[in-house]
Amino acid sequence: MRRIHSLLLPAFALLNATNSAHAQIQVNPQVGLLAQTLQGDPDNGDYRGNMGWQAGVDIRLGRRVYFQPGVHIGRQATVVQVQVPLLLDTFLVENDLVRTVLKARALVGFNLVHKDGFKLRLNAGPSYDLLLSVDNSNDDIAWNRDDLTAGSFNLDAGVGLDIWFVTVEGGVSVGLNKVLDDDGLNNAYDDPRNLTWYATAGIVLGRSTR
């Protein structure tokens, strides 16, 4: 938490310097798709991103420069393949590592284009994925909740477009800490970290002013 706190201090200072006391507040409910893989291939295998989804809401506090906290729930899936030795040969074991997470994020945004009815946005900041559950698509690799850490700190960055009240956004979330537990499978899987690409669509509720 100390790392997140230190990252947020410059964001609050920037907002105080660039926004008036009567900053606008907008609500942005959204849904989207994501593809998540893990950085660092396991011994004798690899990771591939698989399709997942997320849904949640962000709040925008500010005008051209704004603070953007949000909460989302999502289903993340990664294909894990491992070559397993058997006598004089090897065979391929594959399974989807499927996780349900609650994501909290605290981004700072800036409108590159800031017009009534049209905005081109950039945002970046920290997030945290709290692990809620782990599922298996089959039993070839038997994942369970004890194999994974409680969550992942990330750095998120995205670009978005607002046309009137409709908004779309795409971006990436880069994991900062390992996702497999020390007492679990890290030695075999090379201490992987999350790498997630996402695309969302939603609406913006609230008055848009300059």
Give a brief outline of the structure.
This protein has helices at residues 2-18, 186-189; strands at 25-39, 45-62, 65-86, 89-115, 118-136, 151-163, 166-175, 193-203. It is mainly beta and 210 residues long.
Task: Describe the protein's topology.
Layout lengths: L1 H17 L6 E15 L5 E18 L2 E22 L2 E27 L2 E19 L14 E13 L2 E10 L10 H4 L3 E11 L7
Antiparallel strand pairs: 1-2, 1-8, 2-3, 3-4, 4-5, 5-6, 6-7, 7-8
- Number of separate strands: 8
Strand composition percent? over 45%
Helix content: 10-25%
Structural class by SSE content:
mainly beta
Q: What is the CA-based Rg, rounded?
A: 20 Å
Distance between the termini: 34 Å
- What are the secondary-structure elements, in order, as H or E? HEEEEEEEHE
Could you explain how this protein is built, in words?
The protein contains two helices and eight strands. It has 210 residues and is mostly beta strands. A hairpin with a 2-residue loop joins strand 6 (151-163) and strand 7. The longest helix is centred in the N-terminal third of the chain and has 17 residues, at 2-18. The chain is elongated, with a radius of gyration of 20 Å. Residues 17-22 have low confidence and may be disordered.
Tags for this entry?
elongated, 8-stranded antiparallel beta barrel, 8 strands, 64% strand, mainly beta, 210 residues
